[in-house]
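Need tokens for this chain, all 473 residues.
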Amino acid sequence: MNAIAPSPARQLGFAVRPRLRRRELALLAIVAGALVLGRASLASTLAGHLALGDLRLLGLYLGGIAAVHVAFVLTGRRSDQILLPTVALLGGISLLVMERLPQGLVVQRFVGHDLGLAQLQVGWLLLSLALLAVLAVVVRSDNWLRLYKYSWAAAGIALLLAVFVFGRDVNGAQLDLCLGPVCGQPSEPLKVILVVFLAGYLAENRELLAGASTRLGPLRLPPLPYLAPMLAMLGIALAVVGFQHDLGSALLYFAVFLFLLYIATARVSYVALGLLLFLAGSAVLYEIYPVVRLRVDIWLNPWSDPQGAGYQTLRALYALGTGGILGTGLGAGLPSVGATPAIPVIQSDFVFAAVAEEMGLLGALAVLACYLVIAERGLRIAATAQDDFRALLAAGLTLVVVVQAAIIVGGNIKLVPLTGITLPFVSYGGSSLVANALVVGLLLALSDRGVEPPPPPRPRRRVFGPGTAEGVA
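Here are the structure tokens for all 473 residues:
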């Protein structure tokens, strides 16, 4: 008997039947209800009486979330059902905060219309949701990532070099690359490229890195011939970012590198050596770069210049204290004095302080809990991966989001020096939203358990004619 070959459509994973995602739908309904209540609370505070306010932007956002869920249902996805509601909640909080802040903080002109902060943010959120959905639905193979890791690394470094040459200066750091009216930070997609490269290289050389060692006196160092390409790529990225004074991205890259190296090799000595190198490098940077020295000094004692360099940190601490446990309420805080933000760059660097002031400690903990959920789901995906590359890729993508959130939250609460990176899915910024949507889209694709097989055919009931014995074939 000749086997019937599956159709090309089924081989690609598109010949599927719809599959309900009940848990995801229930969680999205809860998220939508919470965001509508939040928007009503904000409108009521601003109006001085019960009001719903203008729900158009929130309606567009919830419509985008619903469209992504429907796409997952119609394409029969069997991927994680917790990640999308978690990201939806973070994005919804971001939209509420952007609607709360003065709209003139960011204004861009498109097709003859001036778009304010909230309008721009909802546009980026919708674009990010579209990218997330496309990756989660279309990506069925990881060969385009694992086989071309060096090409991806070269493209990322070239992008950073382009910023170094043609970039725009932002607050003393050369971060943005502009194409017409649209500007973005290539350091955001570079974090994904770095994880792809590290996952591919570590997966290929995992046994050698975990077992072999080079002795230097009493120290057991990594096998340098196998570690050199990875260190070279990381060193180039850190050097270029360091020259651009984007120290937040440099810290993020180095932390993700150390975590992935430990996950791949389980060698504590590698982490210890990395931390020693980090401390030594930090001391050198403190002496070389005035911006590093300034940020460390302000972290240690912001009261030394309360009206100057320490103003941001002190205002953030004041906002955290004002919020208390329950918060002042959406719209009842002090994010601005007239048209001037009470905390400079509040829409990106200090958005967590704005959330903590108006939503209180409970609201801030809820935001942090969302990142813990992302960490749990991402590491679960890594633990159940089919091979080393997928496991390291899922772990690295998860770390990118969680470590970045930890760094910026730590800077807001004066736990670590302020680095100036964004809070994933909450801060304003198109490049940040798109890059983090790329991360979650890939995690969803990695979590997919494949197309659900069709149900077995029902046994056909035989119709027996007159005089035919029942049960005769």
